[in-house]
């Protein structure tokens, strides 16, 4: 996987396939657990999309194999990270697919760089990612207070017992249980925690602070303004069995984006494109249709110009 220096950190990315450009903005948050669970394995959904598109996947700040900078975890900065990456790769415009916490980043990018987005597909996202009463918000607010008042070392020492690798373990366990994979998920958590314990204290402190700052950025962020400014054709997909954000969250996002189309994937969970081949086909067909219209409009514009 290649590396680019982007806005003060080392970003890992991967390009696969041929065809129109498509970039994937992944969900989740900065964390040591996400860094340790990074894999070079190409998933089935990536292979399927790469058959029809030139798929660009990248690791956000302090996620996967990208480095962990001290800041820049807010949504506007992460949207500009994407813009800079596309500039470096000479990608003028692209289809954009985002899932979960990647949704607000993609919406920000689509609102601020309207001429660069050929179509937008949002899966398993919500108007507000971190909400009151969701089991994460209150704890992250307290952790951010510790970080601000006492610094990263103290905040790390006072972290909750179940936040050794990431703060969102409650969400992850709920989703795994709904999918009938709780035992396997808990085994993965135990393995990641053992690997985290073998990291230096400095690494663990740095990633803990990054995770707190990243999740905290979502506590006051809603997508309303950006969603209203999106000009690209937009498809919102949501799993009927999503236990992180129920289907009503996806419908709410679709209502905010002008002329967006909402599709419920009844038997799917949090990220339907990952697990449901029909959902992948639906997303790919939507983007292919948008590509055909984009190409026709560009040809028509060029014909009139000549």
Overview of this protein structure:
It is a single chain. The longest helix has 29 residues, at 277-305. The protein has helices spanning 32-36, 44-50, 75-88, 102-112, 137-150, 152-157, 169-178, 182-197, 201-219, 224-228, 247-256, 272-275, 277-305, and strands at residues 3-6, 9-16, 21-25, 54-58, 94-99, 117-123, 234-239, 261-265. Strand 1 and strand 2 form a beta hairpin. The model has no long low-confidence stretch (mean pLDDT 92). It is globular and about 60 Å long. The protein is of the alpha/beta class. 45% of the residues are buried. The protein contains 13 helices and 8 strands. It has 2 domains: 3-131 and 222-305, Alpha/Beta hydrolase fold, catalytic domain (Rossmann fold, 3-Layer(aba) Sandwich); 137-219, no CATH class. An 8-stranded mixed beta sheet has the order 1-2-4-3-5-6-7-8, sandwiched between helices.
Give a short summary of the structure:
The protein is α/β, with parallel strands linked by helices and 306 residues long.
Features:
306 residues; alpha/beta; Rossmann fold; 2 domains; 8-stranded mixed beta sheet; 13 helices; 8 strands; 49% helix
Element layout with pairings:
Elements: E1 3-6, E2 9-16, E3 21-25, H1 32-36, H2 44-50, E4 54-58, H3 75-88, E5 94-99, H4 102-112, E6 117-123, H5 137-150, H6 152-157, H7 169-178, H8 182-197, H9 201-219, H10 224-228, E7 234-239, H11 247-256, E8 261-265, H12 272-275, H13 277-305
Parallel strand pairs: 3-4, 3-5, 5-6, 6-7, 7-8
Antiparallel strand pairs: 1-2, 2-4
Helix pairs in contact: 3-4, 5-9, 7-8
């Amino acid at each position: 996987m290649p590396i680019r220096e982007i806005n003060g950190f080392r970003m890992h990315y991967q390009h696969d396939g041929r065809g129109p450009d498509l970039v994937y903005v992944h969900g989740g948050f900065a964390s040591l657990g996400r860094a340790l669970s990074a894999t070079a394995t190409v998933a089935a959904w990536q292979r399927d999309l790469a058959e029809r598109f030139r798929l660009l996947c990248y690791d956000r700040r302090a996620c996967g194999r990208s480095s962990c900078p001290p800041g820049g975890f807010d949504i506007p900065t992460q949207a500009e990270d994407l813009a800079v990456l596309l500039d470096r790769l000479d990608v003028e415009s692209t289809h954009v697919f985002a899932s979960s916490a990647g949704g607000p980043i993609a919406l920000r990018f689509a609102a601020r760089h309207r001429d660069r987005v050929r179509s937008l597909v949002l899966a398993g996202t919500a108007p507000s990612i971190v909400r009151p009463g969701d089991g994460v918000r209150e704890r992250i607010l307290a952790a951010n207070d510790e970080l601000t008042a006492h610094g990263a070392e103290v905040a790390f020492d006072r972290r909750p017992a179940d936040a050794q690798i990431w703060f969102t373990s409650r969400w992850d366990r709920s989703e795994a249980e709904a999918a009938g994979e709780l035992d396997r998920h808990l085994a993965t958590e135990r393995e990641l925690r053992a690997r985290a314990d073998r990291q230096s204290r400095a690494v663990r402190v740095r990633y803990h602070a990054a995770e707190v700052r990243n999740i905290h950025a979502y506590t006051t962020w809603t997508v309303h303004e950006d969603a209203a400014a999106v000009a690209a054709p937009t498809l919102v997909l949501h799993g009927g069995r999503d236990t992180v954000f129920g289907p009503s969250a996806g419908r709410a996002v679709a209502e905010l984006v002008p002329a967006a189309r909402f599709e419920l994937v009844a038997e799917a969970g949090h990220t339907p494109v990952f697990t449901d081949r029909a959902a992948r086909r639906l997303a790919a067909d939507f983007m292919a249709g948008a590509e055909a219209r984009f190409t026709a409009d560009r040809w028509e514009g060029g014909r009139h110009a000549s």
